[in-house]
Amino acid sequence: MAYEIDQSKCIQCGDCAESCPVEAILEEDGKYTIDADACLSCGVCAGTCPQEAISEE
Ligand code: SF4
Ligand code: SF4
Fold first, then answer.
1. Could you tell me which of 46, 39, 54 has the C-alpha nearest to residue 5?
2. Counting beta carbons within 10 angstroms of the beta carbon of residue 7, is it exposed (0 to 12), middle (13 to 18) or buried (19 or more)?
3. pLDDT tens, position by position, 1-57
4. Does ligand 2 lie within 6 Å of residue 54's CB atom?
5. Atom 8 of ligand 2, nearest CA residue
């Protein structure tokens, strides 16, 4: 299972992308998404997000 970003909560701060050890979080036009194929489900990003916008799906 991979982690996902709830876009309704995300404020596009970018902290999660910087925290990911495998650079699985991508930003395009200000929208952050997690590449499910690259994600290791380590949970680091979820702990970093100030909005609690990231959870395991
Ligand atoms: S759970 Fe880990 S590997 Fe997956 S996107 Fe978050 S920090 Fe990256
Ligand atoms: S850390 Fe949270 S609020 Fe910031 S870009 Fe990532 S998902 Fe969005």
1. 54
2. exposed
3. 799 999 999 999 999 999 999 999 999 999 999 999 999 999 999 999 999 999 998
4. yes
5. 10
Measuring from atom 2 of ligand 2, which residue has the nearest CA? 49
Count of residues making up the chain: 57
- Domains of the chain and any CATH numbers: 3-56 (3.30.70.20)
Residue 47 Cβ contacting ligand 2 at under 6 Å: no
Burial of 8 (0-12, 13-18, 19+ CB in 10 A): exposed
pLDDT at 57: 83
Tell me the pLDDT tens digit for each residue of 18-31. 999 999 999 999 99
Of the chain, the end-to-end C-alpha distance in Å amounts to 6
